[in-house]
Amino acid sequence: xxxxxxxxRLEPWSESDLALLxxxxxxxxxxxxxxxxxxxxxxxxxxxxxxxxxDRKGKGRMFRIVLPPGGEAVGTIGFWEQTWxxxxxxxxxxxxxxxxxxxxxxxxxxxxxxxxxxxxxxxxYLHAFPSVDNxxxxxxxxxxxxxxRDECDLEYPPGRPMRxxxxxxxxxxxxxxxxxx
Length: 181
Known about the structure:
The protein has helices at residues 18-23, 27-30, 39-54, 105-120, 135-143; strands at residues 3-4, 9-12, 60-67, 72-84, 87-96, 125-128, 147-155, 161-170.
């Protein structure tokens, strides 16, 4: 099943998307995430993305971001189950190829992925954890309707400490005031 907004289409991740994963593994796109992954790490990630996108138990989905009408793949976005502060939630993350940034593509994709996570009906909250040093991703969270909860320390990739902002969106549509401004 496809999800469409005015500017993008989300298509489920598939076996044929490994080249896109390699493209978004560029140093300039991975600078806030510990740098590019090795080929072995990419193959493992691709396998996880394919498995997640074929799962039908509500554990989440991964998508390629596609520009209509031609269907050019320009990025990735998804949501997946995570335990955060003792609660099961969805987490989201995205990457848009550098040559397509600044066009509202990530914002359109984020709106579409919020709709998809909401439609699952499985978890109340969707979180995003961009680096505090990544202003564009933090602006995107605000634009997509997330509320800034607080700063937190995460390991990403495993073994690498990262200072992040915890952004949360209430998928039930209840007013979710920020803890922090």
